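Work Package 3 (structural annotation) set out to generate three-dimensional models for the target panel prioritized at the project kickoff. During this period the team completed the workflow that converts sequence records into discrete structure tokens, so that structures can be stored uniformly alongside our sequence database. As a representative example, we reproduce one entry of 182 residues exactly as it appears in the project archive.
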Amino acid sequence: MPRPPPMTIRNRPSWVSGVAALALALLAGLWAWSHFRAEARVRRATERIVRLVQKTAAEAPVALGLSGHRLGAHLAQGAVLEVEGSRILLTGRPEIVQFHVQVRDACERIEFTEARISVSAAGPGEIRADVEARYRFVAVGGTEIAGRGQAELRWIRGEDGWRIGRARLTPDPRAALPEGWP
């Protein structure tokens, strides 16, 4: 009995190409869905904010202002900043941006390490991003504050896209702010 010819690209059954194309299309669709859904976009935006808030060296006044502007682009107009266990600290985008610039100006270094971000839907038009990280603030003059803290960011969907509407910071209870810190 003659031996059948080996399979080659030319004599392969036509359904194999169709199955391969369908599998590739399904994989591309799954990747696009996971990459562009709201939770994934908010997760990436939260990662950018963690990097944005860090400071590695002295900054010129223009760089401080630019950092504040970049943070402000992620905030809703009526954003609220609060510290766990106390009252609301700041209300409104301008106040939060001004506070951010004051803290950056008062610090030589701001570091976040071991950052873990989890994101979940919190209702229609709202996504909650929880950030847990080790932090280290080194003030001008050498005073240092370090610990492990958390932040809960409530992202809300508005006409201009996803913005932070509420941020709740939970510092390490063992780390106390020194006198005179902003």
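The radius of gyration is 24 Å.
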